[in-house]
Automatic annotation (TrEMBL), chains A, B:
It catalyses: a secondary aliphatic amine + O2 + H2O = a primary amine + an aldehyde + H2O2. FAD binds at residues 177-178, 380, 576. This is Amine oxidase. Its EC number is 1.4.3.-.
Amino acid sequence: MTRIKTVDLATTSGAYYAPATLAPANTEIMHVSGQPGSTSGGIVPADYESQIQLALTNLRKVMIIGGATVKDILKLTILIVNYDKTQRKHTRHIQKFLEGHRPAITLVPVTQLAAPNWLFEIDAVIALPSTSPSVPLQLTIDSAEKTLDVIIVGAGLAGLTAATELQRAGHSFIVLEARDRVGGKTWSQVLPNGEQGVIDVGAAWINSTNQSRMYALAKRFGAEILEQNTTGKCVLQDADGNCSTFEYGELPKFDIAIARDVARIRDMVEADCQTLDPARPQNAEWDSMTFEAYLRARGASAEAIATATVWTRAMLGQDPKDISALYFLTYCRSGGGLLQMRSDRLGGGQHLRIRQGTQLMAIGLSKELPNGTVGLSTPVSSITQSGINSDVEVVTTNQKKYRARKVITTVPSPVLKTILFTPDLPPSKKLWSESSTYGYYTKAMMTFREPFWVEKGYCGLTQSFTGPASVIRDTSSLPDQKYVLTCFMSSDLGRAWAALSTPEREQALIKQIGQLFQSGLEASRDFISMVTYEWTSDPYSGWGCPCPSLASGVMDSLGGNGLREPFGNLHFAGTETAINWRGYMEGAVESGERAASEVIKELTTVLARL
Amino acid sequence: MTRIKTVDLATTSGAYYAPATLAPANTEIMHVSGQPGSTSGGIVPADYESQIQLALTNLRKVMIIGGATVKDILKLTILIVNYDKTQRKHTRHIQKFLEGHRPAITLVPVTQLAAPNWLFEIDAVIALPSTSPSVPLQLTIDSAEKTLDVIIVGAGLAGLTAATELQRAGHSFIVLEARDRVGGKTWSQVLPNGEQGVIDVGAAWINSTNQSRMYALAKRFGAEILEQNTTGKCVLQDADGNCSTFEYGELPKFDIAIARDVARIRDMVEADCQTLDPARPQNAEWDSMTFEAYLRARGASAEAIATATVWTRAMLGQDPKDISALYFLTYCRSGGGLLQMRSDRLGGGQHLRIRQGTQLMAIGLSKELPNGTVGLSTPVSSITQSGINSDVEVVTTNQKKYRARKVITTVPSPVLKTILFTPDLPPSKKLWSESSTYGYYTKAMMTFREPFWVEKGYCGLTQSFTGPASVIRDTSSLPDQKYVLTCFMSSDLGRAWAALSTPEREQALIKQIGQLFQSGLEASRDFISMVTYEWTSDPYSGWGCPCPSLASGVMDSLGGNGLREPFGNLHFAGTETAINWRGYMEGAVESGERAASEVIKELTTVLARL
């Protein structure tokens, strides 16, 4: 609900900022001092884009403390040292920060700022939202019949795992799910045109060794396991679109110096991420930089940066310049390291698939819960805590009210912004929910009549610096005689592809697949259908997938454990809060177990006191 | 009553500006154009700090016309040409300007401004105070019994002199004094520990030739006169802390080139100040500069500037960079010139003391007034003029109301800010009261068992570039066998000394006295006690002493006679408004006589018309 009006001329409506903005009458106006790109501890990274991200994080912190959000900004003034109009690197970060909001902006190139190492500074004028509650809560809300022990928000793997644990411990609960189905970001769809088998439009892979929770669930619900194919040639498409092959597990055939540099950077990222405590990652210097700045500071070659871009795009839909180096290294560390997380082999992140689709486990878990304990199509609109010894009230958008001693929310962090918390979430939690963003990330499952790539000696795994697909994997199901290449479109390449019409998208992928596997003819001839789902448009996933990322400066402000710390009687789960396999199904289950155990412990303590 | 709220993070509350400020809803917002450092006549001094002061004066003028004060500032944007972060000279002046208020600030280094000689520019966003009166005047105020001819605000020497004149002319009057004593900045205290004699914590010196008013008063009330000792060696402590002696009336033993330059600068200041009309000083160029810029523009050596710094510190508690050159030259001129004002000999500013203390005269004057005409502990809160032919109403903080045809205020200009004037004071008067500031200035009277410095051939006068005391004078009273060195701590050196604990302050002065007089042993052994009074904490003196100073650009705006021009039926006295011996007791008496004569003349004219 934005209250800032823009003034637009005929020629300006396409710009990401407005010629003028209007503050409503009778509004508190906030003036923000120039915010430089330094961490709260005073670290000023040498990298320009890292400074932009930190400055925006600093602006966001001030806005949160002042009670405003991005939508309330009237005016930004941007000060840039050594401004280069051919680059305009700030626009990417500011557009992302603004989330479509269009304030007035003035850009002022300067030769220096208040400190000699500052390259970027931003100040703002902001119209505060009115302090009277904007949601009339007391209209026609059904009163809660009784007080439950726990309300769980979200019936994905985290929420259903928590429910299962609570059920086992004998506590009363209800799971409130916004969607008309369980499973969250696991969603297995039947193929169009009556084809056999299912397609996972969301999470797809598990493994059998270090993802023991998921593997146990899969076994328990009778999953038929499909092993990812790593036999055959892999393909690299370079920045000029030329394709070359390499063996799975080896590096692409760069020239020797480049190969050595790519290996050096890969090994360095691996070593650095292993230094982090996955439960309490802390490194203020790494958090002060974007991942790209971290790579450049270590002298990474263009090819090494392109390779790292394939990693961040395939793993998070982000470019290295869009995310904190500490965030990416922590993300890798949570999956056992960069190499393990990216591996399709035993113990790797993409080792095993499930023939029936990964939604099988969520459906299985929900069926084991008592009738009436999972409410579908019940989005939560507000969560009110009156005091640590009072019940928590949860109200839904369809005007139902629930009451419980504890609440576990499992929603992705961007979704927290859509819930009215009373009292407001603490500043560090707000900073998390307001700063975390998904990159652009879409899977397109391309089904073919024949696995022509296998016949030509390819395993199906490709990586491309040119796109549209950054990475492709074979997700066929041989028992179903279903031959599928899952194409991952992400970040800028993905956005360009998404702007095409559906036939154009199909053709672009068919063309790329033809180039990659030297199979232009077969790719056209054998193509059956393309299945995609735009998580970017899904409000209940927080407008994206697989996992939100954090820009520079946020983790430093959150502290090592800030994501999963409870707030009063409110507990936080969801794969983002996991210690291990963050962003994966395994992490979701781990987080559900952890939140349930927090809640059970506190409920038991309270009972013991009574 | 500030209404601007600040938004602070955990790390920011110590900064002199705030990360963000909030304007209340439903407030008029004033946007101020960039204010450069030029006079109203368009003079732009070459000196950077002079431009800063002028720009701040210009900003203050706009705020006054717009109805705002410093406390209403939401945001400052500071534009600086050739910004040097190792200097940051602007912070001193802006902090002083802000008086503790913390707006949001953005600093923008630029390569040039709108005119090629502008080095500094400041713009502002300001939330206007609401226009409804903030003081509920009509509550339980006693109504005035009768209309007096004159109400005098302040029972210092100015107010009591005016009262004496009105009494003599047969007019009815009352003197309203905020303190529980008469005398204002003359205050004579008995010594602690039962020592004989009194100590003047305020004004101390008069002379017998060109301070005829004070000398006459002293004689009239039986003052025993003590002559300042100028026999013996004086001491200079240089920037390295080394001490050397020189004869009273001569220059310290600088090397020849330096001595010549110090003499040149001294003589130039003397000659320049003599060109001024003390009643209507006007020189737009000198008012456009700080006194330091004036010295530098004339090629003053470092030692000459250090010497001039001893002058401004000892005379006003200010550094040369903090005050207008015209203001300082006018101040000197009012005392007959720099040399006379600084002299301890016949006709000089520090020639004679009074054994019973200088409060003797105020007490004497007040005792000659009719019973009930001096109201102590009666601070004035508002002065209301309904029209030139109507009575003036004066209300006190203890809810008493007085009515008179005329009011004479004698309060120091910073105190004018604490009184609610209706109608508001005219802009030039507001500029005076809001711009005038005291420097840091404290006297510490160090009493000793023996005058060891006299025994070693010193007169007791010292000047120091290192401090803590910039200047020391012998203020012994031989008839009382009281041996005292009065130490003047001022400006930055004084602030550093004031931050120490009382024992540390004593020790610092004992140590310096030991160094200056080659008497480390005696200074420790003979020390009895230290007496100080912090005028900086005294609201009724306007938080300082001896006399407020004006920054660049204010006198130019006030006009040559602006301080003492009446406003309706309101007349202005006090030593600041004196033509001669401004800042001295003599000036206070002169101003009281002048204001009384203005009032008597107008009252007589009105009577003649009736």
